[in-house]
Amino acid sequence: MKKNYSSLLQRLAGICTKTLDFEFSQVRPFGQNLLGLLGLETLNNNTHYTKFVNQILEDGMLAFFQKYPVLGRLVATAVNFWVEFTAEFIERLVVDRTDIERTFNEAIAPFSQNKVAKIQASISDSHNRGRTVILLTFESGLQLVYKPKDLGLEVVFNQFLDWCNQHSDLLDFKVIQVLERDGYGWVENVEQLPCVDQAAAKRFYQRSGMLLCVLYALRATDCHYENLIANGEHLVLIDMETLLHHEPNLIEDSPLTQDLETTATRQFWDSVLRTGLLPRWDFSGDRSVAYDISGLGSTDPRLSRRKVPRWQNINTDNMHLLPELVTVPIAKNVPFLDGVALSPNDYQQQINDGFEQMYRFLMAHKDFLLSRQSLLSAMQN
Prior knowledge:
This protein is an alpha+beta fold. The chain folds into two domains: about 5-135, no CATH class; about 150-250 and about 335-380, no CATH class. It contains twelve helices and 15 strands. The strands form six sheets. Strands 1-2-3-5-4 form a five-stranded antiparallel beta sheet, sandwiched between helices. A two-stranded antiparallel sheet has the order 6-7. A hairpin with a 4-residue loop joins strand 2 (about 135-140) and strand 3. It starts with 5 loop residues before the first helix and ends in a 12-residue tail after the last helix.
């Protein structure tokens, strides 16, 4: 298994960036700093940059962290968390090796015949002392997703989709294999794949309508573009943590109470729009940028919600941070046909049909679904 420290490096860079930028600004002429802030070009020498790098590395950054002890403690904590998380992941991989082979029908044993060839860390937000989702690729080609959190809800949700497949004559949902462990688990990787023809594209959007109905019935939220993948003619939800989303009572006389109790807001949260699956406009904090991050939208490259600090003139005396609007590429939630990204605007009838078919199916089985024998009862905890 190749060593992969890129996630740690990215984390440490994020922690230290602003301080290092400030320190570098102290060793070069003020005029050069001003020109950099104004975005004006000067000669790209590296005299001051080389001097700064040599100076800060001369004592292994000791003087730097003595000057910024809180930053030093934060860096040390981030490193400790990374070591803790990495060791925990490797131990779990070793312990679960046989069960992974059995669950995912892959002849993995022994290590010498099928090693982990590639690891992609930090493919999710970090939680719980810096833990993130990891994508593993084995030499055999098998890809698994390691999730360091409880996967009980993902197991039951996929069982529910399988139950729908078994008890209806509708298009089938894609059911993901999950190996659940205590507080973590291993999940089948879902690849973004194009639709093979126009008929498959129509089925994709019909299934999307069916999935929308299920998520609406389960009071799901946050089904944005990063939480869904277009897998051929299937739209697959890969993060189920906001199913059965809670609705806390607002504190009386809270500043939010008046806004959230308006008729329009109540109607919105009681509609299919609450899922985040259907296209809709959101706006940046200063209202200057409109964007769509919905699960079925975001079909065109768009500007991000905020300016992102980016290094300019890297490794030169003119190196500085400058905020800029970045263009976000089309994500994995968007289906393709013949190399062209599809839009839900062209398949509204299929989405409506799929929603209605699934709605009628759920209503026909309402009594069972609300009984103790239903898989939905397993979701309550």
